[in-house]
Amino acid sequence: MTVPKEVTVDMDGGTIRVKGPRGELSRELPSQVAVELGEGRIVVSRSSEAKLQRSLHGLTRTLVQNMVDGVTKGFTKQLDITGVGYRASKGGGKLLLTLGFSHPVEIQPPDGILVEVPSPTTILIKGNDKEMVGQMAAKIRGLRPPEPYKGKGIRYAQEVVRRKAGKTGKK
Fold it and tell me: Looking at residue 12, what DSSP letter applies?
């Protein structure tokens, strides 16, 4: 894979460090896969064709590519809230969610994750580390996943919730 000019990549033993305009990321890589740095290129190679080697090769290549993309462009996940009385707001650096519980839910985002609330029913999660952005989005969605009868809950922006027919009335 090619590395943009504004990104620097360093290897220190089994750890790779990627530094770019949006910050710095580092990760421990598996020892079964070799990563070589060239002029503007990163080459990931494996020593054999064993199943474990092949899967670690693809995983490592994708992880390194996500690190490079993260320090150049960053990652964003959007969550939509559906339901009467369900809303989100920001206060004191925390995300405040009203989801039909007896109390509002407060979530403190970890370092490196920025949470924005452009409207009461939309949450944007931004960051450089794709894994952390996805984990934060899953944590928020897990508080009130969309239910199949009325569609109420928190869902990803492009997620399609299959709706079920409710009970039929007695005749």
Answer: E
